[in-house]
Design goal:
Elements: H1 10-13, H2 21-36, E1 39-40, H3 48-52, E2 60-64, H4 89-102, H5 113-117, E3 120-124, E4 129-130, H6 142-155, E5 161-165, H7 167-171, E6 182-186, H8 203-213
């Protein structure tokens, strides 16, 4: 029985995924976790990335790890925080690179919905987390689900730009085998990794150059 509804073409693309044994187990685990722990994001926000960016509208994919572990931050889209919340360090570094790359002023908000509405799928590989405990939901089934998402995107004929930051994201390149697609790699934008190849990567202008070459409208990276 399908319990998840995206309200767009992801419903058809992922039809049957939520009936699989691994997802049934994951759902049981999540039911227990939400009942007994503080879990982020809110249960109703888990799939916001898919609701905001339909399958056929995806132009670019940014892959994150798991949700922010602090209160009032995570809302189901990687690197994004709720409206009015100060951008965390990794997101600040993303904005720094956009400013350096494209001259766009650094915003005070970290709400990335404007990107999602233009076709940027903000995909964490793990979609839930315990408060204060990064990677606490690693290995419970989310990775299987999001790998399926990436395989479905890989099958799509219309080209996509995949922006892979940091080693865990770079490993997902193994799922992107379709030569139609484009892969941009850099270090992670966290304070620990940004100086090792994220700053200066120019992924935002590169992604837009690729989209323009395909006859697609570039992304307006302003927030």
């Amino acid at each position: 029985m399908e319990l998840v509804n995206f309200g767009n073409d992801w419903d058809e693309v992922l039809r049957g995924e939520f009936d699989k044994e691994y997802y049934r187990i994951l759902r049981g685990f999540l039911k227990h976790e939400y009942a007994n722990e503080v879990i982020y994001p809110d249960m109703n926000d888990i799939f916001n990335a898919f609701k905001a960016t339909s399958f056929n509208d995806v132009k670019a994919v940014i892959i994150g790890q798991d949700p922010y572990v602090g209160p009032n931050q995570a809302h189901g889209m990687c690197f994004s925080v709720k409206p009015g919340v100060m951008p965390p360090p990794s997101l600040k570094n993303i904005f720094r690179e956009i400013n350096s790359d494209l001259g766009i002023p650094i915003p005070k908000t970290g709400y990335l919905m404007p990107w999602a509405k233009q076709g940027v799928l903000l995909l964490n590989t793990i979609l839930t987390v315990r408060a204060g405990k990064p990677l606490s939901h690693k290995g419970y089934g989310w990775e299987q689900f999001t790998d399926t998402v990436l395989r479905k995107l890989n099958e799509r004929e219309k080209p996509i730009v995949f922006m892979l930051w940091g080693d865990p994201a770079k490993k997902k390149a193994a799922l992107i085998t379709n030569p139609r697609h484009y892969i941009l790699r850099a270090s992670h934008p966290s304070p620990l990794g940004a100086h090792y190849g994220f700053f200066g990567c120019k992924h935002f202008s590169k992604a837009n150059d690729i989209l323009a070459s395909l006859g697609e409208k570039p992304i307006d990276w302003r927030i």
